[in-house]
Design goal:
Number of helices: 4
Mean pLDDT: 84
Strand content: 35-45%
Number of strands: 11
Strand order of the largest sheet: 5-6-7-8
Radius of gyration: 20 Å
Helix content: 10-25%
Shape: flat
Length: about 160
């Protein structure tokens, strides 16, 4: 899940639902309400963010695919189908199958562009500079992505 908020977000207090109030951890820290931050936008994304960088008004995020609905399989992880999904997710997190790179509007969370990656970025291994995006990958390479620049011949 990806969300945006202001530099000084509004703190709101959400009610704790009756079922959650019965849980021991909710009883000791705040029995009636829990604090939360008001988002300006919120979007579901189909991958785990391993690297993220903000460049001007564009947020770049990259990582392996998210193949499992964790809440959906909770309590049913030993099911054969779910075991296969868990194995696939473990392989994806290990980098098998590559990952995704998205550029997202920081203003509203709208996806601007997407790019398939053959290898995953290392944790926090992305930087933006001079109109280019540099990414350190798990295969040991550092790649540079950016606008095509016409090279002038040297004399």
């Amino acid at each position: 899940h990806l969300f945006g908020t202001s530099h000084e977000p509004e703190v709101v207090h959400l009610p704790i639902y009756a079922q959650a109030e019965r849980r021991w951890w909710n009883r000791w820290w705040n029995p009636k309400r829990r604090p939360a931050i008001a988002f300006t936008w919120s979007e579901e994304i189909p991958f785990h963010v391993r690297a993220m960088v903000l460049a001007d008004k564009t947020l770049f995020i990259a990582g392996p695919p998210d193949l499992i609905d964790e809440e959906g399989i909770f309590g049913h992880a030993n099911n054969a189908d779910n075991q296969a999904l868990l194995e696939d997710q473990a392989a994806a997190l290990a980098g098998r199958g590559g990952g995704m790179l998205w550029s997202v509007s920081a203003a509203d969370g709208r996806q601007v562009a997407t790019h398939r990656l053959d290898y995953l970025p290392v944790w926090d291994g992305m930087v933006a500079a001079a109109g280019h995006l540099y990414m350190a990958l798990t295969d040991g390479r550092v790649v540079c992505m950016g606008r095509q620049v016409e090279q002038k011949p040297r004399r």
